[in-house]
Amino acid sequence: MLPDALSAGAVELRRWRPSHLDLLMEAVAASLPELRRWMPWARTMPTEAEQLDVLRAGEAAFDAGAEWNYLLFGPGSDGVVGGAGLHPRAGPECIEIGYWVRSDRTGRGYATAATGALTEAAFSHLDGIDRVEIRMDRANRASAAVPPKLGFRLLGLEAREVLAPGHSGDGLIWALDRPS
User: Fold this and answer.
1) Crossing angle for the helix pair 21-38 and 48-63, nearest 10 degrees?
2) Rounded mean pLDDT of 136-162?
3) What CATH number does residue 89 fall under?
4) What residues are paired with 173 via a beta bridge?
5) Looking at residues 107-132, what average pLDDT do you find?
6) CA-CA to 62 of 20 to 30 Å: which in 18, 20, 54, 154?
7) Taking the C-alpha atoms of 84, 89, 91 and 95 in order, what is their torsion angle to the nearest 10 degrees?
8) What residues form DSSP beta bridges with 101?
9) In total, how many domains does the chain have?
């Protein structure tokens, strides 16, 4: 199991809780135009009821050891500056990291810090995980800048379904193997 909170220097990762609803709604609203470019769920602003269901499902998945979603909290503040998580969709010995940063808080290293903390947590706390992957659309240059800063290597391109307006149909696959 992963800890409820992870320290990541400039940010703290805290597991999703229904009590974070208002803070998450504010961050999503502030970032909706940018999120809409990359995230299929952001075509329209989620309602509070929809977002509460997502938080509850995320909390249950965390408790079940199935998926680990965190909100990123900025320094000296309880404001949500983004989100990140570990998702078991890349294969049995591999875990995938996803992340986003609030539009008015980009360029501060939050995604890099959170991704580094999640990578370390995956290798430290999840038995059987030998590789961490990060996948994103090739057109998302901001997201693609994160993996090489942490030592991930580019494995190649994959064809991806275009699900959001910013998608190109080409995905990048980055990987970092468990240190020996």
Assistant:
1) 100
2) 96
3) 3.40.630.30
4) 135, 156
5) 96
6) 154
7) 10
8) 82
9) 1
CB 124: neighbour CB atoms within 10 A?
A: 10
Query: What is the residue range of 37's domain?
Result: 5-177
Strand, helix or coil for residue 17? coil
- The pLDDT of residue 78 is 63
Question: To which residue do tokens 């990060």 refer?
Answer: 134
DSSP string, 75-90: TTS--EEEEEEEE--S
Cα dihedral 152→154→160→166 (10° resolution): 70
The predicted structure's pLDDT at residue 90: 79
Helices and strands (H and E) in the chain: how many: 5, 8
Q: How far is Cα 166 from Cα 175, in angstroms, rounded to an integer?
A: 23
Instruction: Output the six-digit token pair for 167.
Output: 């998608």
Inter-CA distances, 27 with 11, 62, 147, Å: 15, 22, 23
Sequence letter at residue 125: H
Sign of CA dihedral 69, 73, 78, 80: negative
